[in-house]
Amino acid sequence: MSEPQSGVVPVTSHRGILTGVAALAGGEIGGRLVAFAATAWLTRKLGPDGFGIIGFATAISAYLLLATTTGFNDIGTRDVARHPDRAVTIAASAIAVRLLMGLAGLALLGVVALLLPKAPVVKAVIVLSGLSFLSQAIDISWVLRGLERNVRVGAMNIATQLLYAAGILAFVDGPEDVIRVPIIQFGSELAAGCWLCVGLFGRRIPRASLREGLGILKASGFVTASRLMRVVILTSGLITLGLVAGEAATGVFAAAYRFCFLLIAIAAAVNNAFLPSVARAADHGANALRDVIRSAVRIMATIAAPIVLGGAVTAGPLLRLLFGPSFELGAQAFQILLISCGFLFAHATVHNILLAVHRTNVETVLFFVAALVALMLNVTLIPRHGIVGAAVAALAAEALIAVVGWVYVKTLGVAPGWRPLVPPAVSAGVMVAVLIALGGFPTLLQIPLGALVYGVMLVLTGGVRRVWGPHSA
């Protein structure tokens, strides 16, 4: 990577990046917390069997959901960040291609559902889950991220989940209502997507270019392949459980994974907020890119450390609190999944780097190997160890991706070193010790006390100052 020719690097200011991170992460956290409340309601109303149907259907449809999301969310964001004057044309062209692919994906999902050896209600839920292919096709939040209009994206995330939660509360009251869940999800996503489109396009329908949309699709080939492998890692355990262990075990594992999806969403929000600056910094040399990456790693670690470690310590009571007593059996698997999420946070920044320097082919190979590891471990471990085996498979895959990914980044000369990790690691360690000491206290008391201890330690170790200081701090 060449060094910059000028001392001026046109990247977003540090405060500007943090504002974007706060807007996106705040929207994701707020939206996911609302969705979590809806999930808690669902687990109690549907029970492990009914919630297992939802988890299994979501896992199946996730593969074909790539037909609409594919690599547009990454390549499109990068292109909009570099050419903001063409944002409307890029958005319209992408929507046209994504809608066509979404319709094809929905038809294919119907065929898959018919061939599965499942009850009619499970097949119906699977097909209805495919409606999200169409609502996701008109989601242009990736365009707004490229334009760094993150407040609107954050607001959309919250609005979508509020609509979803309202629908769940109003129309789901027992296992017999399981078929309504994907319909409610589709409606909330469609409303939010239309709102974003009106905000960008106004009242006129912009002219779309299928050629340009297909060009973005072609450029996203490696990213799409990586995402497919990521879906294999995230869902192969759920699918194997659904086929081997039944709906109840699948439901317990799916509930534990829902909390992990909250962490994944937060990691994605922080990552997306940094992507425009990472993309521009990469054009100005290793030093500029390293400064932005240092900030990204510091913020990722500050967010992930207390949630991952604190959740692992309080896993059993936390599952009982969130989903009910029947889901506490998943505590050991939940602990393992949380640790795997820590590795996922570690890799998130690697993805931005590889995307910015046009090395997505490296990530594709890495994800392919990790997906094979996950598949082999799921098939081997789940028949004997159930949901714990599925969790171990996920952990092995995520650890492989993170460790090898950062080893490769180090060869590019942009790795920020270990210093950004020290304050959150020390602070989280003290928090874990306090939580263990408070093991007999109610979970609702342990959580705020643990958060308070972490916050105080972060201030004492200089973590807060470094997060809000300049890149080179």
Description of the structure:
There is one protein chain. The chain is mostly helical. The protein is 82% helix and 0% strand. The protein has 19 helices and no strands. It has helices at 14-69, 72-82, 87-115, 120-129, 132-137, 141-146, 150-171, 180-201, 210-219, 221-244, 247-282, 286-313, 315-323, 331-356, 360-385, 387-412, 422-437, 443-460, 463-468. α13 (315-323) packs across α14 (331-356). The two termini are 23 Å apart. The model is unreliable at 1-14 and 468-473 (pLDDT under 50).
Describe the protein's topology.
Layout: H1 14-69, H2 72-82, H3 87-115, H4 120-129, H5 132-137, H6 141-146, H7 150-171, H8 180-201, H9 210-219, H10 221-244, H11 247-282, H12 286-313, H13 315-323, H14 331-356, H15 360-385, H16 387-412, H17 422-437, H18 443-460, H19 463-468
Helix pairs in contact: 1-3, 1-4, 1-7, 1-10, 1-11, 2-3, 2-11, 3-4, 3-9, 7-8, 10-11, 10-15, 10-16, 11-12, 11-14, 12-14, 12-17, 13-14, 14-16, 15-16, 17-18
Main attributes of the structure:
mainly alpha; globular; disordered N terminus; disordered C terminus; 473 residues
Which regions have little confidence, pLDDT < 50, spanning 5+ residues? Answer: 1-14, 468-473
| DSSP helix fraction | over 70%
Rg (CA only): 22 Å
Q: Largest sheet at a glance?
A: none
Put simply, the count of helices is 19
Indicate the proportion of strand residues: under 5%
Mean of residue pLDDT values: 81
Number of strands: 0
Return the structural class.
Answer: mainly alpha
User: Kindly, what is the distance between the CA atoms of the first and last residues, rounded to a whole number of angstroms?
Assistant: 23 Å
Coarse shape: globular
H/E series:
HHHHHHHHHHHHHHHHHHH
